[in-house]
Write a structure and sequence with these properties.
By secondary structure, this protein is of the alpha+beta class. The chain has a single domain, classed as Alpha-Beta Plaits, CATH 3.30.70. Helix content is 15%, strand content 16%. The longest helix has 5 residues. The protein starts with 31 loop residues before the first strand and ends with a helix. Bound molecules: iron/sulfur cluster (2 copies). The site of one iron/sulfur cluster has 13 residues, from helix 1.
Length: 99
């Protein structure tokens, strides 16, 4: 069995919100992804606070998921008070992946 690499800066329950808490790329196994509706968005930051791998990135006027690390768990959508996040099947983004 392969050894699991531990990233010491990621051991705490909370990171400093600038580093990713988990350092495991999602690769191709994610089945759903969060999509932001900018018309409902309020820039409250709760999605970033609750995201387990802390991959909701602060773009200064918007939070967007870093899809390299997003697991598609849907917690951000569940916690968003504006219902600004939809969790959509990856199959709908197949063309984007093949580009
Ligand atoms: S779906 Fe999960 S992993 Fe992806 S941004 Fe939302 S909370 Fe984070
Ligand atoms: S929780 Fe919802 S409204 Fe708040 S920053 Fe995230 S997407 Fe925007």
């Amino acid at each position: 069995m392969g050894r699991i690499k531990i990233h010491t800066k990621c051991e705490g329950a909370w990171s400093n919100a600038k580093d990713l808490l988990l350092c495991l790329n999602t690769k191709t196994w994610r089945t759903e992804r969060p999509v932001i509706n900018e018309e409902k968005f309020s820039y409250c930051g709760l999605c970033a606070l609750y995201c387990p791998p802390q991959c909701m990135i602060d773009m200064k006027n918007l939070f967007l998921p870093n899809l390299e690390f997003c697991k598609g768990c849907g917690i951000c959508a569940k916690e968003c008070p504006q219902q600004a996040i939809s969790i959509l099947p990856e199959g709908g983004f197949q063309d984007e992946k093949e580009e």
